[in-house]
Amino acid sequence: MTDINIVEEAPGSPAPEPVAPAAQAAHLVPLRGGLLVLGTIALSLATFMNVLDTSIANVSIPAIAGDLGVSSSQGTWVITSFGVATAIAVPLTGFLTQRFGAVRVFLTSILMFTLFSFLCGQATSLGVLILFRVLQGASAGPMIPLSQTLLLSSYRPSRAGMAIAMWSMTTLVAPITGPLLGGWITDNVAWPWIFYINVPIGILCAGVTYSIYRDRETPTRKLPIDWTGLVLLVTWVGSLQVMLDKGQELDWFSSGVVVALAVSAVIGFVLFLIWELFEEHPVVDLTLFKRANFSIGTAMLAIAYGMFFGSLVLLPLWLQEFVGYTATDAGEVLAWVGLFALMLSPLLGRYMHLVDTRWLTTVSFATFALVFWLRSGFTANDSYWGYAFPTVIQGIATALFFIPLLGIVLGGLPPNRIAAASGLSNFLRITAGSFGTSIYTTWWADRASLHHSQLVDNIYAGNPVTEAALHGMRASGFSPQQALGVVDGLIQQQSYTIAADELFRLSAWLFLALIVMVWMVRPGRGPTGADSAGAH
Questions:
Q1: What is the secondary structure of 412-424 as a DSSP string?
Q2: Given phi > 0 = left and psi -120 to 50 = alpha, else beta, which region is 532?
Q3: Do 309 and 507 contact (CB within 8 A), yes or no?
Q4: Nearest-CA neighbor of 306 among 83, 102, 496?
Q5: CB-CB neighbours of 227 under 10 Å
Q6: Distance (Å, rounded) from C-alpha 119 to C-alpha 444?
Q7: 462 three-class SS
Q8: Which residues, 6 or more positions from 12, have their beta carbon under 8 angstroms from its beta carbon?
Q9: Which of 210-224, 291-305, 318-332 is predicted with the least confidence, judged by mean pLDDT?
Q10: The predicted structure's pLDDT at residue 467
Q11: Three-state DSSP class for 501?
Q12: Is the four-CA dihedral 142, 148, 150, 151 of positive or negative sign?
């Protein structure tokens, strides 16, 4: 792989900003021998641990919710809180690095991430778990881009492509491993251990990183931080996320709390836009949206990722709650995405510069549409491969998704704007993933309630089908109450299955609609060094 400055991000992972290590660490001599191997392992393992936590909890939500005495829809806050906190922390990476140094910030992030992982496992209520997940997510923000920065500073420039190829494989394997590992731990140990496993890994990575990189700190300088912009950013994003998470529980706008959150989100967003447009050192550079490729590309990235990540949460929830799958079985269904993703990613990195990125993105969106259309026909009685086959195909869409879209978003930008553009696009992508999770699970529950009501209307005393079913169960030894309970369970299963199919079908049509947006951007090829150079 050559000329790679934008690397593939894994599904569910915070994408790294393109970096120019030479600009930050030109005084450093590349590592050699055992130190280079150990440094690469430590940085890649830290990245693996970070990315793993974006997907490892997806299949554990029913177990977490049941243990903490909340509904599964409330349990998804464990995922959304982590995503929002990570997204908000990403734009701060450049400031923190230049103010304190890449090594210090990276080590602090690892240690804080490890500490809050342990505290997540200790949580005995949903509120406490969400608090520590927020802090864990905020700690995770700088880890991904800084691991890439330190890795590239360890290699000779001529071997940078190989270093990034090795690094990117960890970010691809982690989200595939997450559901499998999370399912196995949940079924065979206990859900807190999906967080505890980070503790020995984090301590090991921090120790090795400190021993190798403590004398390789990047230059620092004092920079102003846009605290007002940051507070407004946290206000409107946090208010909107909490509104989406709590809306169904509080009956939406009939609740004063939801109305207050909506007002806070709107006012915060408007003030944020005004402030950032006139601030000399904005936390988010909104002038990037003047470029059509950046605006359209970022919109496609956010919308597509929101649907992609929302489905990664919805599918295992449905499989476990209404099909009877264990967390391990649900994790296996999701893990098949890695088959084609691992096969195609190296080829894509090597030859993408020869192909118009619009064609690659079109193929990705069309494949996603096919995947969701196949899922829209799911029933509760399908075979294992009936559920897994669309996930296998999804690996093709995933491999063609991230790099070409980042090429559209960042292509043609001057080097001094790459870091800001990458930070903004990734902030919106990660935030969209959290919003997508909330929207998917909320709409799923709302549509299921509607279908439940409609199905119940067809079950009444005197209905021949109903009477025959109830009579058959009573003849088998069921009491009248037990028979009615079985019928209600079947109605519930059917209601949530129909609702899930509707969401998948809508997602298929939306992916097809996104193809129109693809051809609204200027043509381009894969990112090159000239297009991608930049620094935090």
A1: T--GGGHHHHHHH
A2: alpha
A3: no
A4: 83
A5: 9
A6: 31
A7: coil
A8: 51, 54, 55, 175, 178, 309, 312, 433
A9: 210-224
A10: 66
A11: helix
A12: positive
Give alpha helix (H) positions in 155-246.
160-188, 193-196, 198-213, 227-246
Cα angle 305, 312, 11; round to 5:
50
Least Cα distance to 392 among 361, 370, 362 occurs for 370
Residues 31, 139: Cα–Cα separation, whole Å? 27
**Residue 212: left if φ>0, alpha if ψ -120 to 50, beta else—which one?**
alpha
Tokens linked to 181: 């590992």
Q: Return the higher-pLDDT residue of 5 and 191.
A: 191
Instruction: Give the number of other Cβ atoms within 10 Å of residue 502's Cβ.
Output: 16
Contact 304, 511 (CB under 8 A): yes
Question: Whole-angstrom Cα distance, residue 331 to residue 183?
Answer: 6
Q: How far is CA 290 from CA 273, 421, 493, in A?
A: 14, 12, 48
Classify burial at 427, counting beta carbons within 10 Å of its beta carbon; exposed 0-12, middle 13-18, buried 19 or more.
Answer: buried
CA distance 404 to 125: 42
Task: Say how far apart CA 334 and CA 254 lie, in whole Å.
Answer: 37
Cα end-to-end span (Å), the chain: 23
Token pair of 440 as six digits: 């998917």
What residue ranges in 391-519 does DSSP mark as E strands? none
Tell whether the model's pLDDT for residue 530 goes beyond 60: no
With beta carbons less than 8 A apart as the criterion, state whether 167 and 5 touch.
no
Cα–Cα nearest to 148, from 286, 4, 266, 275: 4
Task: Identify whether the C-beta of residue 251 lies closer than 8 Å to the C-beta of residue 446.
Answer: no
- Fill in the DSSP letter of residue 220: -
Phi, psi for residue 9 in degrees, rounded to 5: -100, 150
Distances (CA, A) of 190 to 67, 129, 197, 328: 10, 15, 12, 12
Q: What is the dihedral of CA 442, 447, 452, 458, to 10 degrees?
A: 170
pLDDT in tens, 321-346: 899 999 889 989 988 888 888 788 77
